[in-house]
Amino acid sequence: MHLLHRHGSRYPTGGEHLEKWGKKIMNAAAENAVFTGKLAFLNHWVYGLGENILVTRGRQELFASGILNFFNYGALYNNQSKLVVRTTTKDRILKSAENFVSGFFGLDWRDNANILAAIEAKGFNTSLMSTNACPNSARSFGKYASAPRDQWKEKYLRHRTKKLRELSGEYDWTVSDSYNAQAVCAYETVSLGYSPFCPLFNYEEWEGFSYASDIWFSAASGFQSPTGRAQGITWVEEFIARVEDRPFNVSGGPTAANLTLNANPVTFPHNQSLYLDFTHDTILVSVLTALGFKQFASFLPASGPPRHHQFRTNRVVPFASRINIEIIRSPHEIRHRRSRHRHADPYIPGTGETHYVHFLLNQRTLPMYSSFKQCGRRDDGWCELSTFLDIQKKSLERAQFEYSCTGDWEIGEYGSVHDGVPAKLL
């Protein structure tokens, strides 16, 4: 089983600038602004959130995930050798790994696993934070992704902002204030248990907040991003090497791989029955993109959500989200259609041993047929492993890592990219 796990609930990052916004509101209340009605609490409100690190709930989420994964996969662990568990030096990623293995193995987890923390900083390669080796990803993360999100914010928050401005006295309440209030609601809830900002907004406005996140992630790391495939391809190549039980192909082409670590079987083993990796939300999204899960590829317009869109970040990459990839060995081929009769034989007579791959996203099956027609329509959502590996043979070429990450190309407008690579490569 191969696990790619996002860190647990955390405080805001510095890049979200919520501390600055909190000080702005507190300064306004200390001067001449008098908030009334539902905003009256702001007259005495104090911004009390930390920055970047896991909150208590985040530690609990990863510990509980470790327990659940032990129930599901603990029997696969080979106690004759220690697992190499991969994470990064970013505090919330490292602590997430530590809390997970504490849940999986117990507090004496060091008897069963070694945590390998790759340096997460510019100038250092790691598949678990590949953007440090992909300079052009900053272009996706910038105005290209924020502009359509801001356009949507202006639409879904227009009415609420007008109402809140009427309660803000001398303070000029804007759409940005409304959006920041929604963000603080989320962070205060996971860190303090409750937030007075949450009741300020109705259900439709919270749906709008969620869709704003969908737009940004799709443009920054998904199929609408010109570097979406490139950001995730390194982990995909590592995953394939481990599935095929072979060393990482250090000459296969440019990626964000740490070749020093990947060339060493001690730091990049390929014979484990369990692989546990810990990373960021953008990497999970980009891995799904690099693998080619087209069910998440629909264009998300800034005018509003399309009906039945599949890429919902609150379901795909919430705090503590994870992808479990099961490699299943069966003594015979398994029927595409499963009988409901409990005594029915699931196997196809006369066939030999067959391997399958099963993707689970946050404990829900990702049906392979939805993105890979070669897998065939199956009740279980699986794909024959050999078929899936054939599909992935071109994944590195499709990602165009070198050109996407360091090439000179025009980024264009949001909507010009549909397959996770710069538009002219399509």
Automatic annotation (TrEMBL):
InterPro entries: Acid_Pase_AS, His_Pase_clade-2, His_PPase_superfam, Histidine_acid_Pase_euk. Its EC number is 3.1.3.8. PROSITE patterns: HIS_ACID_PHOSPHAT_2 (PS00778). Pfam families: His_Phos_2. The active site is at residues 7, 281. The keyword Transcription regulation does not apply. Disulfide bonds join 185-198, 375-383. Keywords: Disulfide bond, Glycoprotein, Hydrolase. One of its GO terms (molecular function) is acid phosphatase activity. CDD domains: HP_HAP_like. Belongs to the histidine acid phosphatase family. This is 3-phytase. It comes from Aspergillus ochraceoroseus.
